[in-house]
Design goal:
By secondary structure, the protein is an alpha/beta fold. It is built from twelve helices and ten strands. It has two domains: 151 residues, Rossmann fold; 143 residues, Isocitrate/Isopropylmalate dehydrogenase-like (Rossmann fold, 3-Layer(aba) Sandwich). The strands form two sheets. A six-stranded mixed beta sheet has the order 7-6-8-5-4-9, sandwiched between helices. Helix 1 packs across helix 12 and helix 5 runs parallel beside helix 6.
């Protein structure tokens, strides 16, 4: 069974409600048909004017979460005119389990809608974006490749926590996290190396329920023979499946190199750190991309008992 087959099978079992707020787009409409045909969830497709029945509750949701930004009902109602904010509010009110949007809007709109209507997961203050890199049955999580240009040590640690949590739900295996650097265990020095080391210290203080280590060069993170020489005794070196990149440049460049030159498929970006799943789409997304993202978002919500 391929990773996609497993992804779809588990999404079917979850039985989640999926809101697609950009129903005026042909790709989104086609994706909605495929999601329903594949049995990946119950789709609510918003087309034209969204249903107004939950509007008073949505206004209350926004005003409660962000009273300074939405100081009046009119301000909240104006924000809810945006289909992504309306769709995210359905999730925030538990009228849907996940939202998948951004096919026709920039990522900033999706992220704002998520923060306003859904909020952050406990212990997380930063949204990060992961790609699930897939080749046959091999799956690697790359984070953060989509959101934070120059992450602080705290943000790197939070990206690791969010990536590990979501990997358990989406892939179904145990996360092994490597904080990447141009240095392995003191082979080099510099402010960027220190930032990664500090992220590891912060994560160690939590403490997490998954194996991790850093700072590690990417070969030491992935190749057992290299790990034995460069980082003997490491809990993560040589077997990492969650790679935490030190900045957005390296993360974005890294996933695209693996995708374009290595022949791996990239599923994402998958937004991490939210209290409930709101997924972003590239404006170049195909109907297939939307279906895959919806299946991943369903598993982010967790499988039902």
């Amino acid at each position: 069974m391929t990773f996609r087959d497993s992804l779809y099978e588990r999404a079917r079992r979850a039985g989640r409600r999926i809101v697609l707020p950009e129903g005026n787009d042909a790709r989104v409409r086609e994706a909605a048909k495929r999601i329903e045909r594949l049995g990946l969830g119950d789709v609510q497709l918003l087309e034209g004017t969204a249903p107004r029945s939950p509007l008073p509750a949505m206004i209350g949701l926004l005003r409660t979460r962000h009273p300074q930004r939405f100081s009046t009902d009119a301000a909240a109602a104006a924000a809810l005119q945006h289909p992504l904010t309306f769709g995210a509010a359905l999730v925030g009110l538990d009228r849907a389990d996940v939202m998948v949007g951004g096919a026709t809007f920039p990522s900033g709109d999706t992220i704002r809608a998520a923060v306003w209507a859904v909020g952050m997961a406990p212990g997380i203050s930063t949204i990060s974006g992961a790609f699930y890199m897939v080749r046959e049955n091999a799956v690697l999580t790359f984070t953060d490749c989509a959101a934070v240009p120059e992450p602080t040590p705290e943000q790197l640690a939070e990206s690791a926590v969010a990536g590990a949590r979501d990997r358990r739900r989406i892939v179904g295996d145990e996360p092994v996290v490597a904080f990447l650097s141009y240095s392995t265990k003191g082979s080099a020095t510099g402010p960027r190396v220190e930032r990664v080391r500090r992220a590891c210290e912060l994560l160690r203080s939590r403490p997490p329920d998954f194996a991790f280590d850093g700072e590690l060069q990417v070969d030491a993170a992935l190749v057992a023979g290299v790990a034995a020489r460069k980082a003997p005794g490491s809990l993560a070196a040589g077997r990492a499946n969650v790679l935490v990149f030190p900045d957005l440049d390296s993360g974005n460049i890294g996933y695209k190199l693996v995708q374009r030159l290595g022949g791996w498929e990239a599923i994402g970006p998958i937004l991490q750190g939210l209290a409930r799943p709101v997924s972003d789409l590239s404006r170049g997304a195909t109907a297939d991309d939307i279906v895959d993202t919806a299946a991943v978002a369903v598993l982010q919500a967790g499988e039902r008992p």
